[in-house]
Amino acid sequence: MSPRRRVQPGEQPLLPQGMPKTSLWSRMSLRQWKLPRQWWKPSRQWVMPLAMTLAVLVAAGAITASSFILVNHRKHHELAMKEVDVLGFARSFMTSFTSLDPFHANAYVDRILANGTGDFAKQYRDKVNEVLLNVAQAEPTKGTALDAGVERWNDDGSASVLVATEVTYKTPDGKQTIESTNRWVLTAQREGDQWKISSLQQVI
């Protein structure tokens, strides 16, 4: 402790003589709020119900999201498998359609008609004699489907498919091989468990 210091006569005191007057707020009787100890900790009476409610909501949300993802995935998978199926059919048909065998003209026509439906089948039947004559007089050709892709799915469930083909054949003297590339747009219609061609057009 520091030693006491005496105030000399005529010297100003270090502390004021009078105490400061009380303010209005210090004279007012204010109610004191008494909070329970550890008031910030939640009561166990409502913690468990709240936790259970949140758990149920989270679980319900997870189940809904999982169901949506599963349904979406299934739709995409079914569409992908359907696309693979129709493209395989389109490739096979165009390979057969562009492969001419003059020694088996009737078998060629029967094969094409078996895969036709709608307007395509009707037009082909109407010109079957003309087709038979042209195939019988043509040089043998080997057709190949180079590529195929679904252009769009129509409202009736049919698919518009774009196919690129290559036809290889030899000149009548057999000395030269000629290759011709073409593009086709066909419409494949599902009938039962089989795809069939309802329209076929060459893209120029």
TrEMBL record:
Compartments it resides in: Membrane
Bilayer-spanning residue ranges: 46-71
Record region (Disordered): 1-20
UniProt GO cellular component terms: membrane
Keyword Transmembrane applies: yes
Keywords: Membrane, Transmembrane, Transmembrane helix
Transmembrane helix in keyword set: yes
Protein name: Mammalian cell entry protein
Organism of derivation: Mycobacterium branderi
